[in-house]
UniProtKB/TrEMBL annotation:
It holds the Pfam family Metallophos. Keywords: Glycoprotein, Signal. One of its GO terms (molecular function) is hydrolase activity. SUPFAM superfamilies: Metallo-dependent phosphatases (SSF56300). The lineage of its organism: Eukaryota, Metazoa, Porifera, Demospongiae, Heteroscleromorpha. Residues 1-28 form the signal peptide. This is Acid phosphatase type 7. It comes from Geodia barretti (Barrett's horny sponge). Residues 71-296 form the Calcineurin-like phosphoesterase domain. Residues 321-383 form the Purple acid phosphatase C-terminal domain.
């Protein structure tokens, strides 16, 4: 029988203490006025306050730079129609994932109070629901759903458009990511990868004008400059960016990514300031992960609508630009996305199946990626490997 030691929640635990109820949960915050207490015994822990404690969980601690982590990657998973959830829970329980990247749109929606069942006649789905009112019950349900995952491995999130209400209040208070940006943007290390999460929503919800855009852009610029230094990138060579709304997509729903001058890609209209594509290219970002579109889509290495494959035979070996992946098909109350009939030349593979992605950072040179179809019983419907002998800025162009 172990004897608990009580400590304030620190960065060690910020990633995994996601408890189910807004009114009853204890947030893992190192800056809050009422810090949570956590009982630690090696990798076993419980979470709570006063006389209310959770069951005992086991935390999988992360190693240093010299190991090969495998991460689940997906966006747009709700409480209703969360088709991928059983597969994710099973894979985490069996040790298949070391962390999760949820690239926006959580719960559908965190702030909602309840769902009213609409019956199987609505688009043929028995679990189709209509959201009503505020109150956070849907968010509570989502936290309960991901608890078997988030209590075992880091559950890292980025804000999506469905988190917007009341200035992203539920998103900012239910999760505690590294740093002090209220979860808008942050970075962290896992194995040989440095992962940068940021908000695409600052470009679309402009109640505060340009302040958040400028703040985040300058942070990204400074962060990329820091981690691109030779002494840092020698240890963590892979730079992976994750945000919700993609720069590129081949869907036909008139979203930002369907337009040539995507705001996320080139910046705000007229002045075209604070666009992210040139910034990520300049600092040699290797992989960009997106959600929002309820599909899976893999692009060829791409910059400014120009395919920059490593070679014809091996397009992902020493590519000349970042690789973009859209993986927003985990399952939610909204339907599948649809693709344009005529696919652009920069699209390598597409799938409408519900599912999730599996990414393994093997070492300094190899990163592999798979798309798992929940609709097809866990079948791997796409896979590829990025091989890089060099990580750093891409070929100088007229930026």
């Amino acid at each position: 029988m172990w004897s608990p030691t009580f400590v304030k929640a620190a960065a060690l635990l910020l990633y995994i203490l996601l408890i189910s109820s807004v009114s009853e949960c204890v947030y893992a915050s190192s800056t809050g006025t009422a810090p949570v207490q956590v009982a630690i015994a090696a990798t076993d822990y419980v979470c709570g306050s006063g006389g209310n404690w959770s069951m005992q969980y086991t935390l999988r601690t992360l190693g240093g730079a010299d190991w090969s982590p495998t991460l689940a990657v997906y966006g747009d998973m709700g409480t209703a129609n969360a088709v991928s959830l059983p597969w994710l829970v099973e894979e985490v329980a069996s040790g298949g994932f070391d962390a999760v990247l949820h690239v926006g749109d959580l719960a559908y929606d965190l702030f909602q109070c309840l769902y009213v069942h609409m019956g199987p006649e609505v688009q043929g789905r028995e679990n189709w629901f209509l959201p009503l009112q505020e109150g956070g019950k849907v968010g509570d349900k989502f936290m309960e759903q991901v608890e078997p995952i988030a209590t075992q491995v880091p559950y890292m999130v980025a804000p999506g458009n469905h988190e917007w209400l009341h200035n992203f209040t539920h998103y900012k208070n239910r999760f505690s990511m590294p740093g002090n940006s209220e979860n808008y943007h942050y970075s962290w290390n896992i194995g040989p990868a440095h992962i940068i999460s940021f908000s695409t929503e600052v470009y679309f919800f402009l109640e505060d004008g340009l302040k958040l855009i400028e703040w985040q852009y300058h942070w990204l610029e400074q962060e990329l400059q820091r981690v691109s230094a030779a002494e840092y990138r020698g240890e963590r060579p892979w730079i992976i960016a994750m945000g919700h709304r993609p720069m590129y997509c081949s869907t036909n729903n008139d979203n930002d990514c369907d337009h040539h001058n995507s705001v996320v890609r080139v910046g705000l209209p007229l002045e075209y300031k604070y666009g992210l594509e040139k910034l990520f290219y300049q600092y040699g970002v290797d992989l960009e992960l997106w959600g929002h579109e309820h599909i899976y889509e893999r692009m060829w290495p791409l910059f400014n609508y120009t395919v920059m494959n490593g070679s014809y035979e091996n397009p992902y070996t020493n590519p000349g630009a970042p690789v973009h992946i859209v993986t927003g098909s985990a399952g939610c109350r909204e339907d599948h996305g649809d693709f344009k009939k005529d696919q652009p030349e920069w699209v390598a593979f597409t799938s409408r199946d519900y599912g999730y992605s599996k990414m393994t950072v093997h070492n300094a040179t190899h990163l592999s990626f798979q798309q798992i179809s929940a609709d097809q019983g866990g079948k791997v419907v796409d896979e590829f490997t990025i091989i890089k002998d060099y990580h750093g800025p891409y070929r100088a162009m007229d930026l």
